[in-house]
Structure formats: C-alpha cells, structure tokens
Amino acid sequence: MTAVEASGPGQVQAEAGLSVLSRSGFTIARLEGNLDILTTPVLRERLLSVLGPGVRLLIIDLSGVSFCDVSALAVLVATQRRAGGLGITVRLAAPSSQMAKLLRVTGLDQCFTICATVDDALPA
Fold first, then answer.
1. CA-CA distance, 34 to 14, in Å (whole number)?
2. Average pLDDT for 60-79
3. How far apart (Å, rounded) are the C-alpha atoms in residues 64 and 29?
4. Can you tell me the distance from the alpha carbon of 78 to that of 61, in angstroms, rounded to the nearest whole number?
5. Of 28, 44, 78, 110, which residue is the least packed, with the fewest Cβ within 10 Å?
6. Cβ partners under 8 Å of residue 105, min gap 6
7. What is the 3-class SS of 55-68, one letter each residue?
C-alpha cells in the first residue's frame, strides 16, 4: 500500500504495507512501515475488508510499524468498533516499545488486548 500526496512543489511518498494471513476462525493482518495521514485511507479500507464471514479473531501485528500517528490510531479504533459490531475480537500484537508507549500514553492500552507476540495473540 502506497500513498502519494501531490501538494506543494514536490511529491511526498509514504510507504506502508499490510499483508494478511487467514486461517480457520482468525486472521492476522501484519502492518509495516509508516502509518500516517497519507497511508490511513488505504489502511482503513484494507483492514475493514478482512472483517468477513468466518473471522472470529483479528490479530493486528504491529511488529513492522516504524511510525504511527493519530490518524492511524483512529483507524485501529474504528476497526475494533466495526469488528465488535460483527462479533469479531481484535487483538494487537508485537508492538515495538515506541508503539507500546504511544498506546499507553493515549490510553488505548485500556481499550485493546495487547499481546507481546503474535503467538501470544493466537487462539488457544
């Protein structure tokens, strides 16, 4: 997933990626790169698209996130709300220390189940 903002004299390109691994009953969405206002529209669309029939657990793997701004946090919250309405549990997994601090400072660590590793987030 790549977003380009063409305002101003030059172009600013932001890179972020999302890969999805689906198994029976759960899906792992691995986020990578910079999650910011340039990449969040596509991120929102792609995350919401994985909330399909048969998914009971969505694990969002944050291990590859190098930067996250408030717009990306809003996407995580919106994804959790939509998932909850569909009866899907969302767990965040493997946040870097910087990402974990951001979740803690914003109080989102109280709103999400956060697991140290993806393995910890998997169903028993």
1. 7
2. 97
3. 11
4. 16
5. 110
6. none
7. CCEEEEEEEEEEEE
Instruction: Check: CB of residue 92 under 8 Å from CB of residue 102.
Output: no
pLDDT of residue 7: 38
Match 């340039």 to its residue by tokens: 38
pLDDT band at residue 3, thresholds of 50, 70 and 90?
very low
Helix (H, G, I), strand (E, B) or coil at 38: coil
Q: For residue range 104-116, what is the model confidence (pLDDT) as tens digits?
A: 999 999 999 999 9
In the structure encoding, which two tokens stand for residue 52, read together?
A: 């399909």
Q: What six digits make up the tokens of 54?
A: 């048969």
Strand partners, 22: 27
Here the tokens at position 119 are 């393995």
User: Which residues have C-beta within 8 Å of that of residue 70, sequence separation ≥ 6?
Assistant: none
Q: Which of 100, 81, 84 is nearest to 92 (CA)?
A: 100
Global pTM value: 0.87
SS3 label, residue 53: coil
CA proximity to 36, closest of 60, 59, 12: 12
Phi, psi of 46 (to 5 degrees): -70, -40
